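Notes from the 1:1 (GR / supervisor)

We went over the backlog. Supervisor wanted to see one worked example end to end before approving the batch request, so GR pasted a single chain during the call. The sequence is below; no edits were made to it. Supervisor asked that the structure be written out right there so they could see what the output format looks like.
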Amino acid sequence: MRCIVGIALLSISLSCLVASAQPASDVSDHSRVKVDAAEVNVIEELLQPVGLPRGDSGASRRFYVAPILGASWGTFDYPGQPQLQNEHSESLTAGGAVGIAIAGLRGQWRIEAEGRYRDGIRNDFGQESTDNWSALCNVWRDVSVTNKLGLYGGGGVGAGGFRWFSDVVYPGQSIIANDQLTAFAWQAGGGMIYSLSERITLDLGYRFYSMNEVTSYIPSNDGEYAAQFSANELLFQVRIYEPFRGWTSDRR
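Structure output shown during the call:
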């Protein structure tokens, strides 16, 4: 009888031990899942790209448009001519860009097409450049500093042009021309970006823009006139991601 009672008590004790141990294991596993999830969230936050928050959509590639406005300090050099004949002037530049942003480690890559126009400039000799334009394909790299602030750099290549007008008349010589000229063009630069929201990023940047030398034929003296344009430019942009998507679902 004692043996039977002992066996019964032993069985009950073992059952209690097993029952009490099972919830502890579940709690431990549940806590471990919470810790792992927290670590993943921290890592994702560190890798959050500037100007391209994942938000609700979680997109790694997004279309954007960006109106551009700025100042251009341009110079026309005329090889073979007196230095006083060169043109140096500040003018307004405006345009826009469309592109694709691709999320990457600590930021993003951007590939875009950009078009801009610059005001004309005129020197004291009666020579003027108007209709100054550029169309470039750019590649930029955005690098996160914080979740909202970042830096970027890059450049682009394409074409540029302007209309060159001259009504210079010297004793015994005249330089009369009105030509539309086009040449290879490029730019390089960088700047700062600040992400206002999931969809809007502000961009303040510097560009050095340059065109290859172009040659204009001067019928009045049966000669040629070479010119080269370059500019230092300060630009402000408002980059708008997914501009055709509704705004009601945005949140940050």
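Supervisor's comment: Confidence is low (pLDDT under 50) at residues 2-10, 49-57.
Batch request approved.
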